[in-house]
Structure formats: structure tokens, C-alpha cells
């Protein structure tokens, strides 16, 4: 688990071919990190939606 440092909006695409949604997050909201790359994480929120989140936006 990790938390977001500040409020942010990230893009989420439910399924290929569907419209991209913008999901707002509150500062301090918890996310689950699934995978780590050099400058971002693949993470999911409590609803199970997946996001690419920049590392600088997350407090481990």
C-alpha cells in the first residue's frame, strides 16, 4: 500500500476501445502498487481500477 501526496486526477480506460475516464483522487488516498517501473507505478484504487501513477505523486 502507498498513499498519494496530493490530490490528483489520473486517466483510466476500463476496457480497450472504451472512452478514457478521468478519476479524481484525494490527498492521502491509499492505492495498491502492483508493479514498478523507472518513473511510475502500475497501481489500483479501492474500486479495482488500474492507473499509471508517477512516482513523485506517491508516498510509499
Entry keywords:
60 residues, mainly beta, SH3 type barrels, five-stranded antiparallel beta sheet, 0% helix, globular
Describe this structure in words.
The chain is mainly beta. The protein has one domain (2-59): SH3 type barrels. It contains no helices and 7 strands. The strands form 2 sheets. The protein has a 5-stranded antiparallel sheet with strand order 6-5-4-1-7, with no helix packed on it. A two-stranded antiparallel ribbon has the order 2-3. A hairpin with a 3-residue loop joins β4 and β5. The termini are close together.
- Which value, in Å, is the CA radius of gyration? 11 Å
Name the poorly predicted regions. Answer: none
Biggest sheet features = 5 strands, antiparallel
Write down how many β-strands occur, each being a DSSP E stretch of 2 or more residues. 7
Count of the separate structural domains: 1
Helical segment count = 0
What is the mean pLDDT? 89
End-to-end CA span? 7 Å
Write the element-wise H/E pattern from the N-terminal end onward. Answer: EEEEEEE
Helix content: under 10%
Give the CATH superfamily.
SH3 Domains
SS-derived structural category: mainly beta
CATH architecture grouping: Roll
